[in-house]
Structures are given as C-alpha cells and as structure tokens.
Design brief:
This protein has helices at 3-30, 225-236, 241-244, 247-253, 265-278; strands spanning 33-42, 52-58, 61-66, 77-88, 92-94, 99-103, 106-114, 119-126, 129-137, 145-150, 159-171, 176-186, 192-193, 199-200, 203-213, 216-224. By secondary structure, the chain is of the alpha+beta class. Strands 1, 2, 3, 4, 5, 10, 11, 12, 13, 14, 15 and 16 form a twelve-stranded antiparallel β-sheet that branches. The protein has a four-stranded antiparallel β-sheet with strand order 6-7-8-9, with no helix packed on it. Strand 11 and strand 12 form a beta hairpin. Mean pLDDT is 78; it is low at 1-30 and 230-271.
Amino acid sequence: MKKYTVVSLATLTVLIVVAAGIASAADNVSNGTSICSVIGTNYECSSWSDEQYPAIDLFGDTYVPLLASNSSLWQSHVNKLANLVLDSNETHTLKPGEKIDFGHGYALEVMEIDIDSENVWLEFTKNGQCVADQNVLVDTDSNNTWTVTLDNIQGEKDIIVMKVHVKQLFVGTETSVIWIDGIWLIDYANARTLNFGDKLGEFTLEQIISGTDSSNLGSLAFKNASVADDASVNDDSSDDKSSSSTSLERGLAKFTNKNTESPTSWYWNFWEYIIMRIK
C-alpha cells in the first residue's frame, strides 16, 4: 500500500472519531439536555495539596456538594449544594482576641494562645454565636489543620463545612501571634437540596446521577424547557423559527450548513473523496 494511501486512511479514522463526537454533542444539544458533572478541585492552601473537594458548575455558578468527613469525593451528595464562601491561601497574622470576618455572618476568632503547650484556641462563629471551637496543636510534625464538621446539614451528618490551617506560632516578649495560611469555608447555613422537577432559570432537573468511583464523581442532568417549547412553536409556525431559536440551537447550527445537511454529512462527502483518491 502506498504511503499516501496509509496517511489518507489514518486521517479518515481520526475524522470518523471527531464526526461521531460532533454528532453525539449535537444530539445532546438538540434535545435540550445539559449534564453538569462534579469535579475534584484542588485546595488553594499548599498544605492540602494532596487533597481535593467536590465542586459542580451549574450554568456559570459554582457550588460544593456536601461531603461527609472520611468519605471519598464520589460519595458526595451531588444534589445537596452549598456556595463556596472562601478557598484561600492568604496568610493572616492574629493575636488573642482578634478575628477574621468571612462575611455571610461567619467569623473565626483566636481566643487564647498557650505558649507552654503550643496550642491555640480557635472559635468558629455564625452571627456571633459559637458554632464550634478547638485547641489546635501548632507543631511542625503535626498537620496543624482544624476540620469543622457539623450534623443536620440538609439532613446529613458529619459534613465538612470549614478547614483551617495554622502555619506557625510566634512568641514575643510582649505578645504572641499565630499565622493562618489556609482557610476553606462553605455557606452551610444556606445549603440547598435539589429535587426532581426543580428549576434553575429555564433549566429543570430531570436526573440525579450518584458517583460510582474516582472517574465518575456524579452529575445532574437538566432539561432546557425553552427548547421543548421552541420545538412546539416551530411545528405550529415555521415563520417564527428565527425568533424562537435558543442559544443551544444556535450552538448546534454551527455544525450544519445552509443546505440543512446533517451535522456529519460533510464528513461522508470527504470520505467519498478519499476513496476516489485511493482508487
């Protein structure tokens, strides 16, 4: 077989795969279904570089599926979501009595620094009320991370709502300070559970897909009601076709030529051309 024939067949194989993907994507767009998948996201804090938290993008807004302590990412509650308040590696220097205001009513205060035992007493509050407190051992050989977990968050137990990493403790002649270089917090108080039929704008939740393993962390499938409505309108009156087109339909149009060919018909024309060259 001549070299140019081998190259042509290889090119043909690649284009078949591409065309199949385009056809599949076109079908997904044309029927108005959008799949939003959970992804593993790295923490900003370098001390947690070997850890991730689940996140899901719902039409431009990022949410965190609730996850229990000691659970794998794929075991997150994909339809129980909270906004991410903070994921930061900014360093905060705090004295006893000082606090960090996270907004949304959340705050972290340094209650006391025990120089002898190298402990720092931290208190996490919501609207001025103590939610949790902890003595964190500031030792280079320890993790120095305080993970706050709470029960009864959208009916779930042991949900991770905040992580704090204390980098170092400094003892001076007149005062003591600590450095906090990692904070992660979700707005658990306003978490939401999505159920079948719930709407996000013009999208309606039609399927909740639980995660199965590290390669499939779960997803939510939404139906774009406007696509179905437009299809009905187009069947009744072709004159309104251009005015009733949705953005998803316009996205599909770029794969179709002006002669209303199918999304992959251009490919079969190319295939015929390659076959003629081979012969």
